[in-house]
Model the fold of this input.
Amino acid sequence: MDKNKKIQVGKEKSEKAKESIEQEHLSKVVSLVANKKWLSLPKEDRNALERNVWCGNCCDVVQIENYTISETKFGITLDGECRRCRNKVTRLIED
Done:
């Protein structure tokens, strides 16, 4: 493989890696679409979902606090803290 070909392949790999990192970063941004989906649920259902999150540290169902709402290909997620131990917890709400 000549030097120019190696440089081109290296640039392509670098660009793909950069795109992958950017996509990963974007998936962590809270979206208006996710917030709209969350708010479209009845308040009682939202409250029940907030109180029904598994904490691996407590080995129990707990309430999530200080959470952000984001969108994934499976639905929306609540990423926050366990009310008891402050461990990081996530709740997936499927579409």
Notes: Strands lie at 53-55, 60-62, 64-72, 75-82, 88-94.
